[in-house]
Structures are given as C-alpha cells and as structure tokens.
UniProtKB/TrEMBL annotation:
It comes from Clostridium thermosuccinogenes. It comes from the Bacteria. InterPro entries: Glycopeptide_resist_protein, Vancomycin_resist_VanW. This is Uncharacterized protein. PROSITE patterns: PROKAR_LIPOPROTEIN. Keywords: Signal. Pfam families: VanW (PF04294). Residues 1-19 form the signal peptide.
Length: 324
C-alpha cells in the first residue's frame, strides 16, 4: 500500500466522526419534545393513599372496569343520625335513595274543603298534605358534623280550596229583623212553617222569586192553623182568623231585607189595608194565595239565597250571595 493510501484512510475516518458529532447537536428549546409525562402510567399514582383518606376528604374511590379511578362524591360523616336512623358513611346518592324511599311512605296529598251546594257552607274542612323535602334533608345530612342528629324536613302542602276561601265568597248582602209582638201559638206555628219553606231558597241571576210560588197554598194538611189576620172588607179592614194567619210578617221581613240589596228588583208588592206594628209604615208586604203576591227579580251577577231565623221572639231574614 502506498503512502498516499495511508494518508486518505485517516482523513475519511476523521470526516465520518465529525459528521456524526454534528448530527448530535441539541435541538433548540422550542423544538425539544417534552416527554416527561409520556411514560407516566396509572400505576404511578398512589390510589391507596387517596382511598385511605377518602372519608376525611369527602370522596369515594371506586374500581371501574378493573382500573383505579376517582369518583368524587360527598359522603355523610360518621354517626350522623336522621331521627333514630344512622346515615353515617353513606354517599350522597345512597342517602338520597334512602330518603326517597322514606318519603314515599310519608308523603300525603292534600284534600280541598268541600262546598255544600244546598247550604252554601263548608261541608268538610280542608286537609293539608305533607311532602318530604328530600333535597333540604339531604343537604342537612351532608353538612352535619360527626355524631349530630338531623330532623327530617317535611313541607306543608296547601290544598286548592280552603274553608276560608269558601266562606270569603259567601256574603250576606241584605238582612232585616222584626219582633213577634203577637206570639200566640198558632201564629208562631204558621210563621215557623213559612220560614222553613223559604229557608235555603235560591234565586239565580235573571230569575224571579215568588212568595206564593214557594209556599204554595196554606192548608191544614201542610200544618197551617187559624191565626189572626187583617181582612179587607167593604166596611174597611177588620181582624179575622184564617188558615195561615201571621205569615205576612214573614213576607214583610223578607221585603225589607230585599230592599237593602242593589240589583234585586221588586216586581210585585202590596201593603196591608191597615198599618202593621212590626215594620215601619208603608214597608209591609201582605200576601194572599191566588190574589196578592210578593215577587222580586235577581238582576245581580251571582245567585242569592234566602236564610230565615226564628229565635227568642225575633224573626230575621238574610239575603246571601254566593260568589264561589
């Protein structure tokens, strides 16, 4: 081998080494690939430490599909009681399920007050319902310190219709009272029978009320007796005794109650041939079946009802309006 060849070989080796060194020059920082997290495996996290402290941290560690994962869920502290039941250590979802089961046994639907369509009074009082407030109770359990006792939160449920609402919409719009100056047994009997016939009588909007139409003919078969009346004669008014005597005090008391009500229009009324003592002059309303009647029309927007009361020698007639 010649001297020239021996010189070339070292030069080639030097060139190769130089090229190799050049290729190893470091990349700029902005091109350096950060591989610090590439080789981080799940097993590098110490889940046992988290699990051991889960109660203090308020989280629960679960193993899902064979892998350690963290499912963050609040838990109730130890020995927290709801009444006599220990909820301590339960997760939020477990406690909620237990509360919902308890609520299903406690919850009660409300019942509305019942309106009596005959008397316009409350037939049956309302009943309030109750409903367990699961969310508020659950929050109290979660917030409670260890060893504390928590009470169940139960809300009161109001019914749709209450007694107060019914009574508020039934109003007395007219009332009048007269004194029974003649309290003879037969006369009081006739007045009582007339009151019983009129009591709870209703007049709808646009309808006309007739006193004779409601009472009908006064007869012995209905219980009416002979009692004093003021009879019209050719010689003037005279006292007489007829079946049903005394009921003119009922019709006159009713008339004066009707007078107090706007929208109730009197369509027929007759005065006695002689002044009567139980009402002011000119404010009486005599009735004779088939001859003279007392009538009025209800021009109001709501139905009205007649209520009669005979007590301690006094006769009271109320006109009641139902706005329910």
């Amino acid at each position: 081998m010649g001297k020239k060849t021996l010189l070339v070989i070292p030069l080639l080796l030097f060139s190769f080494a130089f090229a190799s060194c050049k290729s190893r020059v470091e990349k700029p920082d902005d091109q350096e690939e950060d591989k610090s997290y590439q080789n981080l495996e799940k097993q590098d996290i110490d889940f046992s430490n988290i699990s051991n402290n889960s109660n203090d941290m308020g989280i629960k560690v679960e193993n899902i599909a064979g892998e350690n994962t963290v499912n963050i869920e609040k838990t109730i502290k130890e020995n927290v009681y709801l009444g006599e039941e220990n909820f301590g250590g339960l997760t939020e979802s477990e406690a909620k399920k237990r509360l919902e089961d308890k609520a299903a046994k406690i919850n009660k639907e409300p019942a509305s007050a019942v309106f009596d369509k005959v008397t316009w009074t409350v037939e049956k009082e309302e009943v309030y319902g109750k409903k367990v407030n699961v969310q508020k109770t659950l929050q109290k359990l979660l917030d409670a310190p260890a060893g504390q006792k928590v009470e169940l939160v139960v809300d009161k449920v109001k019914p749709d219709i209450t007694s107060e609402q019914i009574e508020k919409n039934v109003k007395i719009i007219g009332s009048y009272t007269t004194v029974l100056l003649d309290a003879s047994e037969s006369r009081v009997n006739n007045i009582m029978l007339a009151c019983e016939s009129l009591d709870y009588e209703k007049v709808q909007p646009g309808e006309e009320f007739s006193f004779n139409g409601v009472l009908g003919k006064r007869t012995r078969s209905k219980g009416y007796e002979k009692a004093p009346i003021i009879k019209r004669t050719k010689d003037g008014p005279k006292k007489a005794y007829e079946i049903g005597g005394g009921i003119c005090q009922v019709s006159s008391t009713l008339y004066n109650a009707v007078r107090e009500c706007k929208g109730l229009k009197v369509t027929e009324r007759h005065t006695h041939s002689k002044k009567v003592k139980y009402v002011p002059k000119g404010r009486d309303a005599t009735v004779v079946y088939g001859y003279m009647d007392f009538r009025f029309v209800n021009n109001r927007k709501h139905p009205v009802m007649i209520r009669t009361y005979l007590k301690k020698g006094k006769l009271t007639v109320n006109i009641v309006e139902n706005r329910n």
